[in-house]
Amino acid sequence: MTKPSVPNTKPICVPCRLAAIGAVVAVLAGGFAYTAGWLTPGRLSAPRFINTFEAVAGQPHPGYRRNHAKGLCVAGYFDSNGDGGVLSRAAVFVAGRTPVTGRFAVPGGNPSARDTSSPVRSMALLFQLQNGEQWRTGMNSTPVFAVHTPEQFYQQLLASKPDAATGKPDPAKLKAFYAANPETKPFQAWVKAHPPSSSLANAAYYSINAFRFTDYAGNSRAVRWAMVPETPYAPITDAQKAEKNFLETDLDQRLQSGPLRWHLILTVARPGDPTDDATMQWADDHQQIDAGTLVIDHTTSQENGACRDVNFDPTILPAGIKPSDDPLLAARSAAYALSYKRRTREETLHPEIHQTQTNGGRS
Predict the structure, then answer these.
(1) Where are the domains of the chain?
(2) How many Cα atoms are found within 13 Å in the side-chain-facing hemisphere of 363?
(3) Looking at the domain 18-356, which fold is it?
(4) Annotated catalytic sites, by residue?
(5) Over the stretch 260-299, which tens digit does the pLDDT of each residue have?
(6) What is the pTM of this model?
(7) Contact 145/187 with Cβ under 8 angstroms?
(8) Beta pairing class for 220-229 and 211-214
């Protein structure tokens, strides 16, 4: 089989309204927050971010994640071929099989949203290593993020809050935000040029942030990664655009024919590559290593699935992998933790929540 590479589909320009783009970038990547200033009134904090996510969602959805609320649990394993060991001493890259618990989701705080509410999808994974360590990662189907800093993300959230009269973001506020933050242009351009995939199974998922990999000799390098599907990419169809919940149905149908596979492609930074800016994509000609194959062989419901109680904090890493200097990483960790705390508390106080809410992602 030919070694896969990160897909470089031919750009296809599609109309995309400013308000729609704003709604997409406002709910991406799981609620980033600023961890500095926790005890300082008026400064950014995880509660301020999560409260704002709740406001953007429009109404309370107790027991659900504050972002990426709609999703489904998946499970399978990762077959390492051993090649990743040249970059990292992490046990996950030793040749062999590692159990994986995962989750697919779409952005937003509404667990009953349409699958087409965003062109972006997410894949979150927990690798349970044999030595007891875990590797958790949350990835998006876009190679870049919309903003550089937590402060920018907060301002973007504010600009994206629905107008009371229309229930939609105010285009004028979004236009002002983009004019003041030109760093958003690469993300906007990528979304406009790449139609969403027709399935969760034929999309690539990207780490977005950079991480530090350390090998057995102590050498450290910055790395980004992507899960690249063996299933060929195909754009969403008109029939799918008219459906509300086609992604889960499509995935279940595909799994009836056998497991689905992605290749873990590690991309190594060159000197001078930005490691602290998720809005900037590295060039395509970097060193890439196929570290093995992710195999997803079944799905389970959000109410009963193994991913239900997992906080996919991307800073929970095995020895041999560390966060980079990207300010969004520590911020993601803080926001994920607060979202997890709130939803699990709500479930404890009101265990009947998910007995009545069965359509959408639980966790």
Answers:
(1) 18-356
(2) 27
(3) Catalase HpII,  Chain A, domain 1 (2.40.180)
(4) 68
(5) 999 999 999 999 999 999 999 998 899 999 999 999 999 9
(6) 0.86
(7) yes
(8) antiparallel
